[in-house]
Amino acid sequence: MKMVSRKKLFVLMVVLLTFSVASGILYAHEDRTYQGYDITVGFLEEPAFEGFPNGASIRVMKLQDRAESSHEGHGSSHEGHGSSHEGHGSSHEGHGSSHEGHGSSHQKLDVDPEEHGVIFSSPTINPEDTFSFAITKDLEGMTIPFHNHLRHDVVGSINVQKHFDISGTIVIEINDSGLFEPLTSNASPGTTIVWKNVGQSYANVTSGLMPDTASTSEQIREGSPVLGLESTLKVEITHAESGNVSDLMELRPVFNDPGHYVADFIPTHPGIYKFRFTGFIESTAFEESFESGTGGFDLVQSPSINQFPNKVASGREIEGVVRGLQSDYAKQGKTYITLGIAGIVCGILGLFTGSVSLYILISKRDR
Predict the structure, then answer these.
(1) How crowded is residue 146: how many other Cβ atoms within 10 Å of its Cβ?
(2) Taking Cα atoms as reference points, which of 23, 15, 20, 21 lies closest to residue 256?
(3) Neighbours of 61 (CB within 10 A)
(4) Is the distance from CB of 150 to CB of 178 less than 8 angstroms?
(5) What share of the chain is helix, strand, coil (3-state, %, to 5)?
(6) Beta-ladder partners of 76
(7) Domain edges within the chain
(8) Which residues contact 26 (CB under 8 A, 6 or more apart)?
């Protein structure tokens, strides 16, 4: 039965991935407004895996007058951008291994806890790192869903009630598969929830639920698409963990999806990628940077997290092993050459010494 379930799950994942590719819908992205334009940025395919074709995606919509008057000049993060909401959000303290978020101190919080990222959104949680969030009085009576933003199908919940009378700390572990243990926790005001990444992959914890396909599609397409940006915009793609290796790339328009542009590339290393777009949107100068894994669009992950039953080494890992062996063989070869030359020199010296000794011996006999 387990094998059948796994097969069904695999087939379902393939179907969902195929649907997302065909429809061009971004399931994890960062959304900002910029001088009257709605800018949506992320990877073309989410989740993004090392060694698989992907691209830096940007969608540009010109907002209507009503939207411009209410949003212009303010950034938003509809898809889990790591901003701080009014009295909420998360704060990344330095570059250490723990992150903390705090709820508001208002009397009563008037928000929908299912709204994506409205209560908290963690920065990237590296293996063995933690993210903590303090439950405050304004969250009493709420059931707060949360999900792993790097694996959208994994959802947990926190039930906040005063009568639970639970103080101290509750630890929720994130395992190698991105799953939460436990999935459901009871808490009271004053409780601190700590998510600990005990797996080997990156994680990101965001409150609320992922928007469904219909609402996401509707949100993305609000306003009028801006055309012709393939000739006025470029994107610089940087891999942060490879010594900030960068490449400036051209954009292409996505077929049958006005306002959507992509710079195609294949990520060859997991981790954090930065997209810096420069140029013009119509007559407006534009230069904005976006970074994966900050609560907006996802990090690039190793495909091994979905491999079963055996983990297969990536081309990058195999290349690293081959280069290591080549380096070892090269060093060994140099050592053998050195020893060989030393042996030849010693042999020549021995032959010379023997010849001289023989000459002296023969000379003495002739006398």
Answers:
(1) 27
(2) 23
(3) 23
(4) yes
(5) 30, 30, 40
(6) none
(7) 1-79+212-312, 84-210, 317-367
(8) 40, 42, 44, 46, 57, 59, 79, 216, 220, 297
CA distance linking residue 132 with residue 169, whole number of Å:
9
Whose tokens are 């039953």? That residue is: 309
In CATH terms, the superfamily for domain 1-79+212-312 is: Domain of unknown function DUF4426 (2.60.40.3340)
Residue linked to tokens 């013009």: 280
Alpha helices in 194-314 (DSSP H): 213-220
Cα–Cα dist 361/23, whole Å? 97
Task: List all residues 6 or more positions away from 39 whose beta carbon is below 8 Å from its beta carbon.
Answer: 31, 32, 33, 58, 59, 60, 288
Among 304, 263, 234, smallest CA distance to 51 is for: 304
pTM over 0.85: no
User: Residue 327 carries which side chain, given as an amino acid letter?
Assistant: S
Residues 118 and 66: beta-carbon distance below 8 Å: no
Q: CA 170 to CA 172: how far, in whole Å?
A: 7
| Ranges assigned E (strand) in 7-164 | 30-34, 37-43, 48-49, 54-62, 90-91, 98-102, 130-134, 143-148, 151-160
Q: Which residues lie closer than 8 Å to 172 by C-beta, 6 or more apart?
A: 156, 180, 181, 182, 185, 193, 194, 195, 196
Lowest mean pLDDT among 27-36, 38-47, 252-261: 27-36
Give me the pLDDT at residue 250, please: 96
311 sits in the region (left: phi over 0; alpha: psi -120 to 50; else beta) called beta
**For the chain, counts of helices (H) and of strands (E):** 4, 22
Q: Pick the closest to residue 157 from 184, 189, 135 (CA basis).
A: 184
Tokens at residue 345, please? 């020199």
In sequence order, which residues have a C-beta less than 8 Å from that of residue 52 and are 6 or more positions away?
Answer: 45, 266, 267, 303
Q: What is the pLDDT of residues 260-288, one digit of tens each?
A: 999 999 999 888 999 999 999 999 999 99
